[in-house]
Amino acid sequence: MFRKYIFVFTVVFQICLSYSAVVKTKRVCVVGAGIAGISAARYLKEAGIDFTVYESTQYVGGTWRFDPRVGTDENGLPLHTSMYKTLRTNLPKPTMELKGFPLPEHLPSFPSWRDYYQYLQDYSKHFNILDHIKFLHNVLLIRRVGDVWRVKHQHVQTNETFEDEYDYIIIGNGHFSKPNMPNIPGEDRFKGKIIHSHDYKEPEPFRNRRVLIVGAGPSGMDIGLDVAEVSKTLVHSHHSKINFSTPFPPHYHKKPDIQEFNETGAIFKDGSYEEIDDVIYCTGFQYDIPFLDESSGLTLSPKSIVPLYRYMVNINQPSMILMGLIVRACLVVALDAQARYATALVKGNFTLPPHEEMMQEWQKRMNAIRSKGLPSSYIHILAEKEDQYYAELSEESGIQRVPPVMFKIRTQDMQAKLDNLYTYRNYVYTVIDDENFVRHEEEPAVRRGLTL
Ligand SMILES: Cc1cc2nc3c(=O)[nH]c(=O)nc-3n(C[C@H](O)[C@H](O)[C@H](O)COP(=O)(O)OP(=O)(O)OC[C@H]3O[C@@H](n4cnc5c(N)ncnc54)[C@H](O)[C@@H]3O)c2cc1C
Ligand SMILES: *[C@@H]1O[C@H](CO)[C@@H](O)[C@H](O)[C@H]1NC(C)=O
Ligand SMILES: *[C@@H]1O[C@H](CO)[C@@H](O)[C@H](O)[C@H]1NC(C)=O
Ligand SMILES: *[C@@H]1O[C@H](CO)[C@@H](O)[C@H](O)[C@H]1NC(C)=O
Ligand SMILES: *[C@@H]1O[C@H](CO)[C@@H](O)[C@H](O)[C@H]1NC(C)=O
């Protein structure tokens, strides 16, 4: 009787073994628990896929958590977040929402970082993904060995290191963390303080000071106006060709690029000079994936990561996805779509084109950029191609399409920013259907209720 049970058990056990050898469970490693990582986690979980998220801090939400400190955190890691106290989103609510999880009704049209960070925490709880995240685990190295990925990670408090094997890698380590410094002559002679926007926390330290802002990207414009509220003067050095029709205050002075610094100030390319107390470099960030080596098959530089298919699939090792490297798009909506595409890929819902084909397509895009004499960083720009991108993702993978209304909202919001950077956040955008939205002005009472 007993022997019979043993026999049955052994047979069942062997069947299980051979089954798992044929239909090997796919294991997915996700790096980072920012929007990229948590949205990947949500869809991987829904699809019943075996996955682990490694996050070097003890938080979800990545850059959306404000931290008053500068430099390193309590575990000696460089502070990842670039958030500042006064920040409100620079895109309206519908374009900041992850699929099927609306931002609370009572929040203003452009929520504060605090409310948005809360939203990301709520999202992680709602979709029950916290158990899948190994917090305080810093990924040190991801190597391709044979037909698997070896992931070396370290507990940032005990220093214990681990190595695990995975079939797929989804990277969501963010790319607004490592400052891009312009290296302007005379910096070391300059007696004032120079910081990068990564370390900008709040306007107060700049009260009654003569402040120089360098760069006119989203950070330069937003931090510039933030500082101008309290500073004595606001000198803005940039070479943007954009016509800002914002009514800048009288103490705002536009300048061309900086020629050099001396002890007391900056000399600009037009020969003019300004005395300056503090400088904030809003000169952008560098791509930085320090945990990849040459076995990834990628060419990594501060300006670009190539070659990628659909702006995210590593063409030379297509079991690796790099999320959120795109610029000039509704990033949150795009990340959500990329997470669904990645999940559909792992699930086997579709297969990628052959290597040759992906390479050719990428090469064609790269050649177009080079022939226009543009820098390689343009390979990551979506801009007017954003809606087309969503259409292509869906066509290929079968995921639900990001509706065209998102791009339409972004387009109108972009115009509102060109018109007036002080007022673009006063508009509420309400989605009617996949194609249409309406815009109206927000009640001042809603704005007064902002929790900054
Ligand atoms: C100041 C600022 C304002 C912004 N405003 C907007 C806005 O209004 N609207 C908008 O759509 N976008 C905005 N963005 C863009 C923003 O980056 C995205 O909204 C989004 O946060 C990107 O998410 P992510 O997951 O790709 O990266 P992140 O949020 O940067 O998250 C990356 C995570 O990976 C972790 N990590 C990194 N390396 C490792 C490692 N080796 N091992 C383990 N974990 C690691 C980090 O700790 C972090 O938690 C803003 C960005 C900044 C910096
Ligand atoms: C971990 O390593 C850091 C840096 O080398 C060191 O300062 C720290 O004391 C170590 N912690 C432990 C628990 O060993
Ligand atoms: C910006 O405005 C100036 C003056 O109004 C005009 O000459 C120029 O063509 C405009 N540039 C762009 C890019 O629209
Ligand atoms: C810095 O350069 C300006 C312009 O040439 C000059 O007026 C100023 O005196 C210089 N400052 C110092 C400390 O040399
Ligand atoms: C994969 O395809 C199945 C069947 O069509 C579908 O139900 C599922 O949602 C798809 N998964 C993803 C992540 O697209």
Can you walk through the features of this model?
The protein has helices at 2-22, 35-46, 113-126, 218-228, 331-347, 355-371, 386-397, 405-419, 444-448; strands at 27-31, 50-55, 133-135, 137-145, 148-155, 161-166, 168-171, 178-179, 193-196, 210-214, 233-237, 252-255, 258-261, 265-268, 273-275, 278-281, 285-286, 299-300, 305-306, 308-309, 313-314, 320-322, 427-431, 437-441. The protein is of the alpha/beta class and 452 residues long. It folds into two domains: 7-178 and 285-406, FAD/NAD(P)-binding domain (3-Layer(bba) Sandwich); 181-281, FAD/NAD(P)-binding domain (3-Layer(bba) Sandwich). The strands form eight sheets. A five-stranded parallel β-sheet has the order 3-2-1-7-22, with helices on one face. The protein has a five-stranded parallel β-sheet with strand order 9-16-10-11-12, with helices on one face. Helix 4 links the parallel strand 10 (210-214) and strand 11. The longest helix has 21 residues, at 2-22. The radius of gyration is 24 Å and the shape is globular. Mean pLDDT is 95; it is low at 15-21. The structure holds flavin-adenine dinucleotide (FAD) and 2-acetamido-2-deoxy-beta-D-glucopyranose (NAG) (4 copies). One 2-acetamido-2-deoxy-beta-D-glucopyranose is lined by residues 158-159. Belongs to the FMO family. GO terms for molecular function: flavin adenine dinucleotide binding; N,N-dimethylaniline monooxygenase activity; NADP binding. Residues 1-25 form the signal peptide. InterPro entries: FAD/NAD-bd_sf (IPR036188), Flavin_mOase (IPR000960), Flavin_mOase-like (IPR020946), FMO-like (IPR050346).
